[in-house]
From TrEMBL:
Protein family (similarity comment): Belongs to the FUN14 family.
Species this protein is from: Phaetusa simplex (large-billed tern)
Taxonomic path: Eukaryota, Metazoa, Chordata, Craniata, Vertebrata
Superkingdom, taxonomy of origin: Eukaryota
InterPro entries for the chain: FUN14
Name of the protein in question: FUN14 domain-containing protein 2
Subcellular location: Mitochondrion outer membrane; Nucleus
Amino acid sequence: AGVKDDTFKVLDLAEYTKNRPWWRKVFAPSSGSSAEKYNVATQLLIGGVTGWCTGFIFQKVGKLAATAVGGGFFLLQIANHTGYIKVDWKLVERDVNKAKQQLKFHSSGNKMSPEVKSKVDEVIIFLKKNVILTGGFAGGFLLGMAS
């Protein structure tokens, strides 16, 4: 009756870590997707606020970039018209046609590299697990772009 059982269970770490995402290994077992941790209202609020901020910044940067590109093109046209610079339009046309051919060549294959495909798959899995958060972000982004 006084015999002690000294048997131990062997834990295979390779098998254990295969079934656990990297963020759970780094942070904690309770750090899963936001759907596991927050209620619907909180997910919508977090997604909406971050989406609005992203959309607002995207809109401002987009306007600045469009103004810079348009202004630069306008200044180049004025400089060309007044004779400060001379544009070789045949060379420009040849380079544009070469770029078009390269774009057609790259888009005709329509094959992604394995690294890009795996990242795309990870993003799709994240979006599927966090549909409410993603929806809030999309709505907030559109509102941020409109404001």
